């Protein structure tokens, strides 16, 4: 079933690349805004960036592991879309509860190094773990044979890291000049959820189309194998 | 993902290479240079004048200067302009200085108000060390120095219910503005920290698009304030008060009383008082100007636009 989708459906791979690009864009956009969000409570010293980058790296690494594991059973575009929706939801507390959360941490922890580390954890750990799951899961959906797997992974890293680069520069050069921090975060969240819904709808449309054509595709599949 | 780290490293390396190059060609004698966590720190000396600089390339980044034979003299006009705060509160007992530089302001204030408690807050420990070693920065029981981000210091001071009669905000230089020290929320915190008769003096810049945003933000928090500007200088001093601004005759009387004391430090308070322009009479920015907030504070980007 999943193999059929991988091989036959046109536009599925470009969609996955687009989603991976967008997740890269959002991850770095959020990371950059992290400095802005923490500054009122924890200042703008170097250790703020230490805390933020540490938390993002740590969560991404765990996300990679979790995403890879998740992709081993019943991988589907449907579940892939769900990851995006969950990521979008997990980002929202950054916009709605950040000051409240940071104030509690500010009162509890005097040292701004550990304060900023705990605050970064509280705000960014869960969404970034979920966003980290996207890369390995994308590889699972894109790879069709062993020979091209390295190339597919390379192309995926290219697309998602390019997204990260653009997310960094566009957020820091322009978005902060045009919009409020929370508005940008909410747009990132909405984009992730919308893309997730797109993936799910795309999957539905194609599986109903595939059901209509199921006879021909099955015979073709048999012939090729 | 690693792009941020890489570009940061690259920026640091090029910055360092550039400063080393320029060091060699500088005419003044460099008596100390070091690279701290935050910046390049240089101490230069020529013709009996010793200056602290943060970036060699730019001419607008002299932080603090001291006449070696006469350390009490205030060298910069902007430091003298800060004294117009005294026309609102002539006898500050608790003074908070955010942004130490060479510590010259703290030293001078100690001379003028020997009984005052002065707290200096400086984010960069290396700057504190340089102030002590090269600028005769003086500390005793009444004068303390905290190596901390100004915003955090103010938040913690509020929790401890501290109050200050005079807050001097001197954390900006021509190259970089700590954006979280220019927002409405920050100014509200600073205002809460002021005593009933307290006054806040901020050394900032009077050019670029930032002017209107900054002005609108100060007005939203403090109501009307004084602008203190000189013709051929990029600096502007904002003098804001916790209560309504005093009337011209009151300030004139205060200036007369203070003049003899301040003259010793090369501060002509009567002349300076004429530079004070109240925003009640002269509002030189558009009424609908946006505010800087913790949500919207691209101060450095706005400062690029003229």
UniProtKB/TrEMBL annotation, chain A:
UniProt entry keywords in alphabetical sequence: Membrane, Transmembrane, Transmembrane helix
Gene source species: Colwellia chukchiensis
This protein's name: Glycosyl transferase
Upper taxonomic lineage: Bacteria, Pseudomonadati, Pseudomonadota, Gammaproteobacteria, Alteromonadales
Membrane spanning stretches: 15-34, 46-67, 79-102, 114-137, 157-177, 184-202
Entry keyword annotation includes Transmembrane helix: yes
Presence of the UniProt keyword Transmembrane in the record: yes
Automatic annotation (TrEMBL), chain B:
Top EC class of this enzyme: transferase
Domain PABS: start-end pairs: 12-263
Binding-site residues, S-methyl-5'-thioadenosine: 39, 122, 149-150
Record-linked Pfam families: Spermine_synth (PF01564)
Catalytic activity, EC: 2.5.1.16
Enzyme active site: 170 (proton acceptor)
Top-rank lineage group of the source organism: Bacteria
Catalytic activity: S-adenosyl 3-(methylsulfanyl)propylamine + putrescine = S-methyl-5'-thioadenosine + spermidine + H(+)
Keywords in alphabetical order: Polyamine biosynthesis, Signal, Spermidine biosynthesis, Transferase
Signal peptide: 1-28
BP terms from Gene Ontology: spermidine biosynthetic process
GO function term, MF aspect, one: spermidine synthase activity
Annotated metabolic or biological route of this protein: Amine and polyamine biosynthesis; spermidine biosynthesis; spermidine from putrescine: step 1/1
NCBIfam families (UniProt xref): MFS_SpdSyn
Assembly information from the UniProt record: Homodimer or homotetramer.
Family: Belongs to the spermidine/spermine synthase family.
PANTHER family, per database record: THERMOSPERMINE SYNTHASE ACAULIS5
Function of the protein: Catalyzes the irreversible transfer of a propylamine group from the amino donor S-adenosylmethioninamine (decarboxy-AdoMet) to putrescine (1,4-diaminobutane) to yield spermidine.
Name assigned to this protein: Polyamine aminopropyltransferase
Organism of derivation: Colwellia chukchiensis
């Amino acid at each position: 079933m999943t193999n059929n989708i991988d091989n036959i459906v046109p536009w599925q791979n470009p969609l996955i690349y687009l989603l991976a690009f967008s997740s890269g864009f959002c991850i770095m956009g959020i990371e950059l805004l992290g400095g802005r969000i923490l500054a009122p409570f924890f200042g703008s010293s170097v250790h703020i960036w230490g805390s933020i980058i540490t938390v993002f790296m740590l969560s991404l690494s765990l996300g990679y592991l979790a995403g890879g594991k998740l992709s081993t059973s019943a991988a589907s575009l449907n579940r892939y879309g769900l990851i995006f929706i969950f990521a979008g939801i997990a980002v929202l507390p950054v916009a709605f509860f950040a000051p409240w959360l940071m104030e509690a941490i500010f009162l509890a922890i005097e040292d701004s190094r550990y304060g900023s580390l705990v605050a970064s954890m509280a705000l960014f750990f869960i969404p970034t773990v979920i966003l980290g799951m996207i890369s390995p899961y994308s590889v699972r959906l894109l790879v069709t044979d062993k020979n091209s797997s390295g190339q597919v992974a390379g192309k995926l890293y290219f697309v998602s890291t390019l997204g990260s680069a653009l997310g960094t520069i566009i957020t820091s050069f322009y978005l902060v000049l045009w919009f409020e921090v929370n508005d940008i975060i909410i747009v990132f969240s909405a984009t992730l959820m919308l893309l997730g819904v797109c993936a799910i709808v795309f999957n539905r449309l194609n599986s109903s189309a595939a059901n209509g054509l199921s006879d021909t595709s099955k015979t073709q599949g048999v012939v090729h194998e | 993902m690693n792009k941020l780290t890489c570009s940061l490293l690259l920026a640091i390396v090029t910055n360092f290479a550039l400063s080393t190059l320029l060091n060699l060609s500088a005419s003044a004698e460099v008596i100390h240079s070091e690279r701290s966590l935050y910046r390049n720190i240089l101490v230069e000396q020529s013709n009996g004048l010793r200056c602290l600089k943060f970036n060699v390339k730019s001419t607008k980044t002299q932080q603090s200067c001291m006449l070696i034979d006469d350390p009490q003299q205030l060298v910069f006009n902007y430091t003298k302009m800060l004294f117009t705060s005294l026309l609102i509160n002539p006898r500050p007992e608790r003074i908070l200085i955010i942004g130490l530089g060479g510590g010259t302001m703290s030293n001078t204030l100690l001379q003028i108000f020997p009984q005052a408690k002065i707290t200096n807050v400086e984010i960069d420990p290396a700057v504190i060390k340089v102030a002590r070693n090269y600028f005769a920065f003086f500390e005793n029981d009444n004068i303390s120095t905290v190596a901390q981000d100004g915003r955090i210091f103010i938040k913690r001071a509020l929790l401890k219910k501290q109050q200050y009669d005079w807050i001097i905000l001197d954390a900006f230089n021509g190259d970089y503005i700590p954006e979280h020290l220019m927002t409405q929320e920050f100014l509200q915190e600073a205002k809460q920290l002021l005593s009933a008769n307290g006054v806040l003096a901020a050394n900032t810049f009077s050019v670029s698009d930032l002017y209107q945003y900054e002005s609108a933000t100060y007005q939203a928090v403090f109501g009307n304030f004084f602008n203190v500007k000189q013709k051929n200088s990029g600096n502007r001093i904002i003098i804001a008060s916790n209560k309504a601004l005093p009337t011209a005759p009151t300030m004139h009387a205060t200036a007369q009383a203070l003049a003899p004391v301040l003259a010793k430090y090369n501060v002509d308070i009567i002349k300076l008082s004429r530079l004070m322009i109240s925003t009640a009479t002269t509002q030189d920015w558009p009424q609908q100007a946006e505010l800087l907030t913790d949500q919207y504070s691209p101060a450095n980007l706005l400062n690029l636009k003229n």
